[in-house]
Each structure stands twice: as structure tokens, then as C-alpha cells.
Amino acid sequence: MILTPAAPSPHPVEKDPRWAAVVARDPAADSQFVYGVRTTGVYCFPSSPTRRPRPQNVEFFATAAAAEAAGYRPSRRGDAQPAAVSRRHAALVAAACRQLDAAAQAPTLQQLAAAAGLSPYHFHRIFKAHTGLTPQGYARAQRAARLRVQLPGSASVTAALYDAGFQSNSRFYAASGHALGMPPSAYRAGGADADIYFAIGQCSLGALLVAQSARGVCAILLGDDAERLLHDLQDRFPRANLIGADAAFEQQIAHVVGCIERPALGLDLPLDLRGTAFQLRVWEALRAIPAGSTLSYAELARRIGAPAAVRAVARACGANALAVAVPCHRVVRSDGHLSGYRWGIERKRELLRREAQGAIGRE
């Protein structure tokens, strides 16, 4: 009789779901834990491309700080690779954004950094690099977005401010101008008594409308019909005071026309950006794309730390009301072909052609 030796039972670490993430080198798990390797004295993130250790030599920690407190040092070989670092940072930022989205009261920078296992300075720098906003700016934009939703149907401004996450009247009114572009009571009344100056002109791409609130340029609209552009502006603020601009304001529209004709010059005007926290992240990332360059929707989603939100990124591009100033025309499909543009594919193609021509002229 021949006895077959029994298969060795799996090590307890192999039964831990975190080990499966290590085996898969899952970047989404980088925000959840790190693992230390007893034989080398280093710790790694799950997505690290380093050689996989034996399960019996592994122990898990909730954060990098906890691993360092236990005597481990960071892996300098695998985790120093740019691709691994970028994936890990994107996952950490995405986790922080989810934490900010869900919190009734925004966590502090120190709390966010501790959850990511990073120093406050390092976390702040990474967050801004991936989203275009500071953690405080992201939280402020999130409150502003909730505020815009709550105000129109709220029984009072006070009720809306607490529902939106503001902790006091003073903080709310100090931020309301930035959040709404006008006093909160005026926004609640559909923009009543808010002054928005506008001018309509013509450029080589058709009709052009430029509008400005007290905070800055709030709309740059392109189209074939000047009257329809004005109706679009009225729909945004049905009870605002829309004031036809004087000769001084005509200089603003001249700046915009100049940027449309030569988009590589850029548009150096104060902007009044109004959107959800997610839209602001997308729009800030759009403004970072150099003239003459394009980016796919998928790459843009990765840049803001939300790689799975490609469709949401496309919707944020479509919601942009500041043509050229927020250059959503620089985003294309993954295969390089042009797709959706609020002001028409042909205008998008022409803007890209002009930018490419400008880039060649600078060489």
C-alpha cells in the first residue's frame, strides 16, 4: 500500500482576503493596508511589483505609519517605480474623496493624512496634484454643491445651510459668495437681484456670448444663433438682472475672441466656476492640459483619482459652460477620434487644429 503524503494545509495568511489582493497586486487595496515582510524588514503596498514573499513571512498593517511603528521601513525598490507610485496615490486620493463625500462634517487634513498613512504635508501635495483642489477646497466645493441643491426647495436659508453641512451662519455667509456667486437669498430666488453683465458678438466660430458675475466670467457660450445663446443664459439665472455690457466690458469679449482665434495664447481672465465638487475636479484638470495636447476621457479620469468614472468625467465636460477657458475640447476618445462637444464637433476640430498649428509655429 502506497501512502500519498497529505497536502500541506494553507498558512493562515493565505486565508486572509488581503493576501488575495497582494497576489493580484490590486491597486485599489493600496488605500486599505500595507504588508510587512519579516525576512527583509520592509513593508510594501499591495500593488507593489516586488517579488511576492512567502505567506509565513508576511504580516498586515492598516497604514504605512503602523508598519513603521512596528520597525519596518518602506520598500525602496518596487514602490519607487513611477507607475506603482501613481496607482497607489490615485487609490489613496479616491479613498479620501469618498471619505469627504460621506462626511457630515469634513475631516481635518490630519485625519485624512492619518487614514492614508502619510504625513499631512505629503498627503496635501498628492491630493492637490491628483484633483487640482486642496482637501479643504474639495470639501468646500462639496458643501457648495449640496447648498445649491438644498436652497431652491428649502423652507429657509438657515435650514439649507445646515443640511448642506455648514456648522454656523457666519461660516456659511463667509463662503456663500464663493459657493454661489451671489447672496444665498438671491440664489434661492433664482438669481433675483444678482447683476450679470453680458455681451454678444461674432467670431470665426459663429455667435459668441460672454457673461460675467461679480466674481468673474461665468459663461462663454458658442453657437449659430445669438438669441438662443441669450436664452441659455436666462435659463441659468431666470431672475437675475441681465445687463447688456457697456464699452468697457467689450474688452472682455475681445479677449475671448482673441483666445478663440489663437487658443495657444490662453485666456487670462478671472473665472466664476460653479459646479459640483466632482465637476470642479474635472474642470481644474482640463485647465492643466497644455494647448496643442489632447487627453482621453479615461486618462482624465485617472488624473483626478477616479479611474472608473469615465462616463461621469464625460458628463462633467459636457456641463462646462466656459468654452475655451475650460478647454474641454482637448479631451478625445481613447482611439483618438473626436466625440461629444457641447458646441459642436466641427468647432472642436477647428480649435484643436488651431492649437496644433500654434504648437508647430512655436517649434
Describe the protein's topology:
Elements: H1 17-24, E1 34-37, E2 42-44, E3 58-61, H2 64-69, E4 73-74, H3 82-102, H4 109-116, H5 120-131, H6 135-153, H7 157-164, H8 169-180, H9 184-188, E5 195-203, E6 206-212, E7 217-223, H10 226-236, E8 241-244, H11 250-261, H12 277-287, E9 295-296, H13 297-303, H14 310-319, E10 331-332, H15 345-362
Helix pairs in contact: 3-5, 4-5, 6-7, 6-8, 6-12, 12-14, 13-14
Quick take:
This protein has helices at residues 17-24, 64-69, 82-102, 109-116, 120-131, 135-153, 157-164, 169-180, 184-188, 226-236, 250-261, 277-287, 297-303, 310-319, 345-362; strands spanning 34-37, 42-44, 58-61, 73-74, 195-203, 206-212, 217-223, 241-244, 295-296, 331-332.
Description of the structure:
Helices cover 46% and strands 12% of the residues. The chain is built from 15 helices and 10 strands. It has a 4-stranded mixed β-sheet with strand order 3-1-2-4. Strands 7-6-5-8 form a 4-stranded mixed β-sheet, sandwiched between helices. It has a two-stranded parallel ribbon with strand order 9-10. Strand 5 and strand 6 form a beta hairpin. Helix 6 runs antiparallel to helix 7, helix 6 crosses helix 12 and helix 13 packs across helix 14. The longest helix is centred in the first third of the chain and has 21 residues. The radius of gyration is 25 Å and the shape is elongated. The N and C termini lie far apart (82 Å).
